[in-house]
Amino acid sequence: MARMMMRQVLVMFVAVMAHATYAANTVDSVQAQAMLNLLERCHLGGVPAQAIDQVMDLPGTRLIVGQQNVSRRVTAAQYREVLASTCRGEIAQVRPSEPGARAEKGVQGLTDDVAPSLIWGRDHIELLKEKLVAAEQNKGFGEVVPLALENLPEKIDLSPKLYVVMGGRAGAAASDEGIYFDLLADAWRSRASKASTTPHEMVEFFAHETHHVGYGRILDREREQLHLMGGEMQAWNFLTAVMMEGSATLLINGHGSWAELQKQQHIQVDLARLPQLLPAAGNILQTALAGEMRDPEYQTRVSEFFGEGYHATGAKLLYVIEEARGRDAVLRVMEDPRSLLVVYNQCAADRKEPFRFDPELAGRIRTMGESAPIE
Ligand SMILES: [Zn+2]
User: Exposed, middle or buried: residue 275 (CB in 10 Å: 0-12, 13-18, 19+)?
Assistant: First the structure.
């Protein structure tokens, strides 16, 4: 997700992380164990306040709440309230913590995703215990960093701390504080299909998030060399979110294959929305370049790309490029995301793809940030 904003939220932990290195072949499961204990006690009746406090104090829970503040707004107090209510089997009536789309989306995520999954988890303790044991025994964590690095345009020093957690909204997420895979969110989302995440897919989800950390650093460095102003910065933020999710999704989860990606349940609803998402992406970039949008308008527009909208859009655009020119061409666009629209349009013509970006927009995106700032 939008890693840069995550970093603002978690800025206080960055200094600690900068001095710590971790062998990325083990996983920290303390939070998942504590949440499981809490859910088990809830299942037996009662609301053990101490067990809730214990869960709230853990780094894994801070990651979960932090993830819900990347593009939404959720407070620790709201999350605690949700935990206490779900312990009783009820969905908390949480109010937005501030005006605007972010806080409303935050509440929506808590009541539509987090609370129902916790209530479900309270009644599926044995299944979750099995998932936790399987995750702890997963021998593939040593592959996480190599897999991320293979799919980046340059080598970056990566040593992420890996967590398995329970009780978040996203299935997996990255920040400077660490990377997590949510066993409960994953089990809850796949409860109807019986197709549960395999140990290797879990490694790929960790690699997807590790890729975000590395690619985020590459993109931050490029942005610092550009002179992006106002609406251009908004266009850059949107464009890089599409590139971030699209590249990790296509190259790591999809192994570069559209047919494989289409088989993956997590993204199917968003792939079906591509006929709306592709023109919407062009419109957001067009509107941003015409003049910076106010934050509420920007947030409302990009909310269409939540879920896996960014992932589906970016994966589609990059797949057309991969088909026409090969995987190296995808990595070159990753080096300078401003070339995405121009290169996509050329490849779409070769592949007879129906969707094209407005050529004038594609050209303006290609050169944005190149003029020197006015002294
Ligand atoms: Zn992602």
Answer: exposed
CA–centroid distance, 37 to ligand 1, in Å, is 29
Are 180 and 163 a contacting pair, CB within 8 Å? yes
pLDDT digits (tens, 9 = 90+) for 153-195: 999 999 999 999 999 999 899 988 899 999 999 999 888 877 7
* Distance between Cα 208 and ligand 1 center (Å): 6
What is the whole-number distance in angstroms between the Cα of residue 371 and the centre of ligand 1? Answer: 31
The tens digit of pLDDT for each residue in 256-300 reads: 999 999 999 889 999 999 999 999 999 999 999 999 999 889 988
Q: Are 249 and 307 in contact (CB under 8 A)?
A: no
**Cα–Cα distance measured from residue 240 to residue 242, given in angstroms and rounded to the nearest whole number:** 5
Q: Quick check: 117 pLDDT over 60?
A: yes
Distance in Å, CA 135 to ligand 1 centroid? 20
3-class SS of residue 187: helix
The per-residue b/e assignment along 78-114, b for 16 or more CB within 10 angstroms, e otherwise, is: bbbbbbbbbbeeebbebebbeeebbbbbbbbbbbebb
User: How far does the centroid of ligand 1 lie from the alpha carbon of residue 47, in Å?
Assistant: 34
CA of 170 to the centre of ligand 1 (A): 10
> Please, which residues have CB less than 5 A from ligand 1, an ion?
245
Q: What's the chain's average pLDDT?
A: 91
User: What residue ranges do the domains of the chain occupy?
Assistant: 3-7+20-214, 228-367
Distance 301 CA to ligand 1 centre (A): 19
C-alpha 174 – ligand 1 centre gap (Å) = 8
